[in-house]
Amino acid sequence: MHAKHLIAVALLVLTPRLALAQDRPRVPQGPQGTVTMPIGEYNRLVDRAAQPDTTPEPPPVPAVVGRADLRARVAGDTARGTLRLDGEVFQRGQVKGPLVSGATLVDARTDGRPLPLVQESDAHAAVLTGPAPFTVTLDWAAPVTSAPGRATFALPVPAGGTISATLDLPGDPAEVKVEPGVVTRRQTSGGRTTVEVTLEPGRRGQVSWSMRETAAPGVPATARTLADVKSLITIGEADLRMVSLVDVTVVQGEPQTFEVRLPSGFEVSSIAGSSIETTRAAAGAIVLTVHDATVRRHQFLISLEQAHAPGSFKAMTSFPTLTGAQREAGETAIEGIGTLDVTASGDEGLHRMDVRELNATLRSLARQPILAAFRYQRRLEETRGLTLEVKRFADAPVIAAVAQTVVATTLVTPEGRALTEVQLWIRNRAQPFMKVTLPPGATMLSVEVAGETAKPVTGTDGTRVPLLRAGFRPDGVYPVSLVYLTAGEAFGKRGDAQMALPKFDVPMSLVHWELFLPDRYSATPNGGNVIPARLAQLVAGSAAGTSLDVGHGATAGIVGYLPERPIGPGQIVGHAVDTNGATLPGVTITVTASDGVRRRATTDEGGMFIVSSVPSGPVTVTGELAGFATVRRSLTFDQRPRLVDLQMSLATLSETVEVRAEAPVIDQAKVTELQNAPSQNVLNLQRRVAGVLPVRMDVPRSGTAFRFVRPLVLDEETTVSFRYKRR
Hints:
Elements: H1 3-20, H2 39-50, E1 63-75, E2 78-101, E3 104-110, E4 113-114, E5 117-120, E6 123-143, E7 145-147, E8 150-155, E9 157-158, E10 160-170, E11 176-179, E12 181-189, E13 192-199, E14 205-210, E15 224-235, E16 239-252, E17 257-261, E18 267-272, E19 276-282, E20 285-290, E21 297-307, E22 313-318, E23 321-322, E24 327-336, E25 340-346, E26 350-352, H3 360-365, E27 370-379, E28 385-392, E29 401-412, E30 418-428, E31 433-437, E32 442-449, E33 452-453, E34 457-459, E35 462-466, E36 478-486, E37 494-501, E38 503-504, E39 508-518, E40 521-528, E41 531-532, H4 533-540, E42 572-578, E43 588-593, E44 598-602, E45 608-611, E46 617-624, E47 630-637, E48 642-648, E49 656-659, H5 668-675, H6 680-691, E50 703-713, E51 718-726
Parallel strand pairs: 1-10, 15-24, 29-39, 42-48, 47-49
Antiparallel strand pairs: 1-2, 2-6, 2-9, 3-4, 3-6, 5-6, 7-8, 8-14, 10-13, 11-14, 12-13, 15-16, 16-21, 17-20, 17-23, 18-21, 19-20, 22-28, 24-27, 25-28, 26-27, 29-30, 30-36, 31-35, 31-38, 32-33, 32-36, 34-35, 37-51, 39-50, 40-51, 41-50, 42-45, 43-44, 43-46, 46-47
């Protein structure tokens, strides 16, 4: 449209507006035949007139098939099926759309009406009207080609974006392949097998499966079967039980009955199987009749029993076998109930195997630890035998509960009163209560089990603390804590005193005891059944300086800062912490000398490390841990033991922190003084006395800590005696 035409249209539109604007001030009019309008509206009309007409771009293709759903059923030597195509026509009018190639079509329909097709080479196309979506249904057929042991047929190739296929095949084929494609589901029912497949668009597909031989009409085919027998032998108190899973595969024919030969001396207790219709006993065998003879695979679960004399015995046995099986493979596992020693041996066809290689189904049948396992191959008319020599022992009691770690803390006042907290980390299997016998004159103040307050039961033979019921947490370790107060004689100027821990009826793997005495007395341990922790460290410590694991914070505080064993020449000792002061275990410590010689160590659970045999001269101590910035400290080493502490910060990027600070020389006397300082356990117990425990006592705020250990304690007191003197 030209500008002059737009101006004419504008005159028609603006005429009513001019009538309404008569009352407004008159605008000077131009010559006859002209129209007066604002300049902005005039420019807008000119711009619209200058814009070219826009024509929509044509679609890239006239029509497309988005989804194809293919179905096929094989009957005899022909595969027939339907192919449904869903797509859309983009152009207006009639277009030619490709549908399928490589197919023999029987019929074509769309919306219930016949659809004319156009054939181009081996492809078929249809004339479609658009723009609109369409749905086309094609009936197709393909011949089934049979080869020795194999049958195949070709699939049509639809022009779809996604192609799914459902195939209905006869019998229970042992192997189904679709190329190219992915089998997503397979189901066998009623003598036929349904296979769901996803095909690749644009590629010719082929379906193949195993085909078993069939006899001529009216002539029954000779049955050919394969068997797989998995047996579990259970040695009981007075019987020998065997559970066998017999897996039968039919290679040829359609057998209705199967005969399973039983090992001599065994009686059948039960028979199970989803395809079993009836069972009957025969001489040394059982005959099983199945519902459907066309099914190619059966499973039978047979349970057998054989009595034997109690105690030790020797027995020879074989396994269930499928009569007439061309080849039979088998696995057997042996388990026993009670305390026994089993020697199992077999004939030359029986081979011992690792129990971890057993079939998962056979392992799931076992209820006891598997003692031995064998595998074998058996051909027609062959037998396989197993000899068992069983020595049975009388049952012995087992430990129902155990305390893996025990940490005791005792605060002693000048009046002779002692406040003790005992923390046990219990692994309980079947014990409902733990018996506690307190020292004479002791009173229980509080009990906690797994962090919850518990109420103990007091009896004539001691106090019983309830444990978590057996089976509630069978594999977990949980804490049990108790606090008691012991009355004693007041300390004099000098003398002897003795302290004791309660007796527990659960075995204790390792006991750690910290005894805190007031600073007005100097004491020297001189007896008891405990070992000073310092001596235990000398025995348990390694050359690398690993500290003794006291577990669960027993070395928290100052005592965990320095090792218990003496520091010697040529050693660098240190402690790795983060910026908040928390210890960092697992830090790699590298001490590099000027000649390039390196010594390495790793911090323990308390963040402690010791590097020995450090050469004299300038050395660099480096600390590395994933997620933290690498820290380096340099010093000149003169064989005197040095203390090098490393504070490591989180690293956002790869960075190294150089620390320039003098490493102090370790004074062994100072180390001993720090080792005798109270641990965090003492400080925690002091706080509990001040605000939690229902007891009034003047606990010492400063003093000397003595640490002891005792391994393998069972139902006996742990004692220590010492000689004291007032300072």
